[in-house]
Amino acid sequence: MRTVIKTAVARRYAQALFELLDQSNIEATRGTLNGLSQAMQDSVSLRHVIASPAFSLEDKIAVLTELGGRLRCPPVGKAFLAQLVRKNRAAFLPEIAEAFAKLVDQLKGTQPVTVFSAAALSAAEQQQMKKRLSDTLKRDVDITFQTDASYLAGVRIQIGSAVVDSTVRGRLKDIESLLTHE
Length: 182
Prior knowledge:
four-stranded mixed sheet
């Protein structure tokens, strides 16, 4: 229940920011939000500063706007970050970044896709994968390629919440599930 509320709040904030920006600042803001989201996930110290009542609102705003400045955040984005701190919503940055990215993708008409494979795909294989997915989805795709040796072989494709798993590990799990449920 709490996750649903957090996601809904994040979507509203992302939509508000999206509507405030002009076209020229959308990608810079997307980059800033993604960078801040990653920083929040990676840095215990940053999460502590944002969550702790020991730090004043001004200190929290200064930290986020400084990080935003380093990530080339436009002025509207900096004002937005300050508002997040004032409304005690700065901890929602990862969810806001995700919701904002979806809005940008909708505007651009692209579909974000993540392709996982056991070994790195060659440039030709990546290009072929991009073309096939673009043809199948009938829209441009923005593919992120990741490797994970635990897949053994094959690929796992994630498109939004849909997953197509043709990895050896995935098939072994399917077989295991079949055998244990009979």
